Every structure is written in C-alpha cells, then in structure tokens.
Amino acid sequence: MGINKFSVGGAIGFGWKRTWKNFWWLLLxxxxxxxxxxxxSLITVGGDxxxxxxxxxxxxxxxxxxxxxxxxxxxxSIVQGVVTVFLALGVIRIALAVTAGDRVRIGRIWxxxxxxxxLLGGIIVGIIVGVGFVIPLVIGISISAATDQVAWAVILGVxxxxxxxxxxxxxxxxxxxxxxxxxxxxxxxxxxxRLVKPHFGGLLGLHILIALxxxxxIIVAILLGILLIFVGLLVTLPVAGVLAFGIPAFAxxxxxxxLAGEPVA
Length: 265
Hints:
By secondary structure, this protein is mainly α. It has one domain. About 80% of the residues lie in helices and about 0% in strands. The chain has 10 helices and 2 strands. It has a two-stranded antiparallel sheet with strand order 1-2. Helix 4 (about 65-100) packs across helix 5 (about 115-145), helix 7 packs across helix 8 (about 185-195) and helix 9 runs antiparallel to helix 10 (about 235-260). The longest helix is centred in the N-terminal third of the chain and has 33 residues, at about 65-100.
C-alpha cells in the first residue's frame, strides 16, 4: 500500500477496478439491500391494507388517509429511514475495508459500531442543510411578495441551493471518519469539513461524475435490455445496479483515504 494523492480520475479508476474485482459479492449485497427495503415496504403496505374495512361506506383511499393509516405510514417511514442509515453505514464499512486491501465481507453490514453517532450526525446535517436552503428562499419569497418581483425568489432560491450543496459536501465524509477514527461525539462533522475544505472543487466534480455514471449506467442497461427483447434486462439491470452501487462506494472511500493522508491498497 502507498500514499496516493486525491484525484477524481484516481477515485473513479479505483472504484471501477474494485467493483469488478468484487462483483459477485457486491451483487449479493445489492440483493440483500433490495430484499430488506422491499420487506419493509410490504409490511407498511400490508399494515395499511389490514386497516381497510371493505364493508364500510368509505373508499379505500379515504380509510388509508385516516389518522391510524397516517400514523402507520409515519412509523414505516421512520423505520425505513433508520434501516437505510444502518445499511449506508455498512457500505462505508465495507468500502473502507476494501481500500485497506481486504475483500467485500457481508458480515460487515451487520454491525452497530458508530450507528448512533452516524444517525445523530445525519439528522444534524439534514437540519443544517435544510436551514441553509430554506432561510434564503424564505427571504427571497418575502422580498418578492413585497416588491412584486419574482426574480428575488428565484435568485435567493438558487443561493439557498448553492449553500445546501456546499454544506452537504462539507459534511459528506463524517461517516468515514466515524468508522475509520472511531471519533466520539460529533467531532466527525468538524473533521469532515476540515478534509473537504481544501479539495471542495475536486470532490464536487467527483460527486457530479458519480451521478452521471449512475444515470448513464442505468440508461444504457435499460436500452440494452430492450434491444435484447426485454429478457436482457435480467442481465443488464443487475450489472448496472452493481456498477452504480460499487463505483460510488469505493470511489468515495478512496477519496476519504487520500484526503486523510492514509495509504490505499
């Protein structure tokens, strides 16, 4: 292992190579994630439908909109959100292990190490990002209402979106800090900001490229599947899913390791 300098090309190249090297394990991880999220969705839908009384005069939609149905939906959304955070932390744990020279191990998903800190940090980051976006937008709407000029709402809305992007990117590595450094409290947020700040442009470019790769991979998979008379979707979509899952995971872990001055396998 050697110390690498951060570069967008290096991160994507690492993600590409390690994804193919661990393809079958990543496919299994993707199936597990899909199954878990699907099970939660089915439980939520099943709970909603169980509360429906077909003999009543009210329509199914009206009954599902009652307080009981809404409460069940809320609980289901919270559970799904918590599970998503748990699985996301598992991805970080797997990706960091791969950058250290290990292979993908399914067992790394099922660990609660750092979960509470990651969940709390995610909530705080969400609040900070939301406030950073909403305040300029509200100010813009207020000025537009007072001056009857919509441009203010648009301009300050764009400023709010830029602030939200900056804040999101600045705190984007805190989960890696939690797993790698076992940081206590919320110090991971400050450490993430410290690592990202000098390389903001490069990380922004990396995230944009990752988004394009994910979108492009899925579009190509669908087109190829259609050209192969839809049966090909059974092959192209799983491959696209693994690439869209693995490349971002390993590329971001590579980015974290290099920005932190740590060796990469």
